Amino acid sequence: MASAPRPAGAPAPELVFETLMAHQRSAALRTAIELDLFRAIGEGPGDTASLARQCAASERGIRILCDFLTIAGLVEKEDGRYRHTPTSALFLDPRSPNSIASTARFLGNPAMTEPYMHLAEIVRNGRTVLPGEGTVEPENPVWVEFAHSMAPMMAPMAGPLGAIVLDGLAGAVRVLDIAAGHGLFGIEVAKLSPEAHIVALDWAPVLEVARANACKAGVEGRYDLLPGSAFDAEFGGPYDIVLLTNFLHHFDSRTCVALLKKVHKALKPGGRAAALEFVPNEDRVSPPMAAAFSLTMLVSTPSGDAYTFNDLEKMYREAGFAGMTAHPVPHGPHTVVVGYAK
Amino acid sequence: MASAPRPAGAPAPELVFETLMAHQRSAALRTAIELDLFRAIGEGPGDTASLARQCAASERGIRILCDFLTIAGLVEKEDGRYRHTPTSALFLDPRSPNSIASTARFLGNPAMTEPYMHLAEIVRNGRTVLPGEGTVEPENPVWVEFAHSMAPMMAPMAGPLGAIVLDGLAGAVRVLDIAAGHGLFGIEVAKLSPEAHIVALDWAPVLEVARANACKAGVEGRYDLLPGSAFDAEFGGPYDIVLLTNFLHHFDSRTCVALLKKVHKALKPGGRAAALEFVPNEDRVSPPMAAAFSLTMLVSTPSGDAYTFNDLEKMYREAGFAGMTAHPVPHGPHTVVVGYAK
């Protein structure tokens, strides 16, 4: 939202102003999703009066909100009518099968956003101000919301992750999906590998979401539930593959190593552990989305982080793994890190 | 914060994610200012341990916060040390005379940010959820905070505004500064025009800030205080110039016209009324900073707006003014709109 052009590298007070006001952008998008505005824009005709009627909202509110979304690049305006951009048509209109609008329910959840009101205290103390262990507190209901609402954002990664972890494997592979959540990653492996058998581990209320998704995908006959905590549950096994998706970043490296040792014990020799992670470069400030994720871990956990590949490789090695490789997922901030049990 | 490159115009789910997380950027900058981090970065040496000590904060918190600020383009990182960008050195280090860090106290004030948690309700109802008239409620203490903390952001505009409103005038001009706030605009006119006499109008506690600034500038002998509301106070006069800075946008056009009529009556024939405003183009979605300001008015007032030049010209004309002209202030989102009393 820059204003008059300046020479490159010149001091820019508008960056300060724009950053202090950036919270408006999150609120505007969250609100548009809540009001079902992107459905109304998709249905047309897109003038303020119609949109206000469709969303049961005021014309003043809808006009100002739609103008703001236009400025933010999320919709287009022409001759006083608002219409979809390619991004909003595909990812924000609830009529699109690729819609990720539901992610606002998790990312914009007051439980996830309210702690930012106390960020100074968090930085002083070096840990979340949420009660107990924050988002990693056992049975935290936020993970049921995550399983429901973040699945559409995770779904496009399931295919690439499945191909990476199955590479060179065939037949009746046994898979443990730790912190399965929505279950999409284990389910994708079951879909790609018709004899694969999946054991999904998560807290019981979360597993209900995974089970429903497994049924929807028609793989429920090869899909077992293991309710409990990754730290306490008996893993069973031995497994060919253990999935650790969006999990290690919640914990300090000592805890990760202990968990990886437990994973190692549950794997067949040569079996593989695959972590889906935000993996910044060693400078920890690039690429931006992966690196910025560390702030979410500061705010919501006692000691989690966005770990670099070196960090993760060291943890894996300490836990007995070898041959670690990093596989960035195309078009997204995630990387799959694979290690092999010796 | 885009990730892997995509073809131009291709749908970009990361825009959705980045927008939903934009509130982190506001929180990070507000927090860095609160912890006096930009002073510490300016003093050096800029490693995490030193910064944590200087800010009385944890190393984990400082490292993650500084990495995040680096990603947001507000500081630089090299060999594990953080240092100023040209922007942070000039505008965020409190040791800089141009620092605008104090603006975070107003823009990041919970009274200004908390209503965004209720933006859906605001859009439904078409008005602020703040009590009474919101930020335009008489004697709202938020304007004392504004007068204190927003002055450094407004100061660079005072020179250009002073030159515009004094153009062609000389001698003992009489100036009424409505909603004077920090007083900087009227004070600048007094500095530029050594015989000018200023009457500053605002609520009494706010005028204390203006008076202190007038003393600092050495113009207190030509600076009178008129405590009260712009709608109720007797303006006196007649004046050569009436200033209406950052004021009209808080009200609906009917209210603005009534006020402009009152202003017209207080002006000498040919006298000028100058409004400092966020003036978007007629499309209401450009330029971005001026146009986006309408959201702030939706959230904080019953019926305010960022008015286009056509809107403002119509109000001025209805109130009896003629010859309206728009003067964009260089390097900022503001425009000075001048009209002449017939």
Written description of the protein model:
- The structure is a homodimer of 342-residue chains.
- Helix content of chain A is 44%, strand content 17%.
- Chain A contains 16 helices and 9 strands.
- Chain A has helices at residues 13-20, 23-34, 37-43, 48-54, 59-71, 86-91, 103-107, 110-113, 119-125, 142-149, 151-166, 184-192, 204-216, 253-266, 288-300, 309-318, and strands at residues 75-78, 81-84, 174-178, 197-202, 223-227, 239-245, 267-278, 321-328, 334-341.
- The first copy, chain A, has a 7-stranded mixed sheet with strand order 5-4-3-6-7-9-8, with helices on both faces.
- The radius of gyration of chain A is 22 Å and the shape is globular.
- The interface between A and B is large, with 96 and 96 residues.
Backbone shape of chain A: globular
End-to-end Cα distance of chain A: 53 Å
How much helicity do the residues of chain A have? 40-55%
Q: Which pair of chains forms the biggest interface, and how many residues does each contribute? A: A-B, 96 and 96 residues
User: Rg of chain A to the nearest angstrom?
Assistant: 22 Å
Overall mean pLDDT of chain A: 94
Main sheet record of chain A: 7 strands, mixed
Poorly predicted runs of 5 or more residues of chain A? none
Secondary-structure element series of chain A: HHHHHEEHHHHHHEHEHEEHEHHEE
Q: Count the helices of chain A. How many?
A: 16
**Oligomer status:** homodimer
Structural class of chain A: alpha/beta
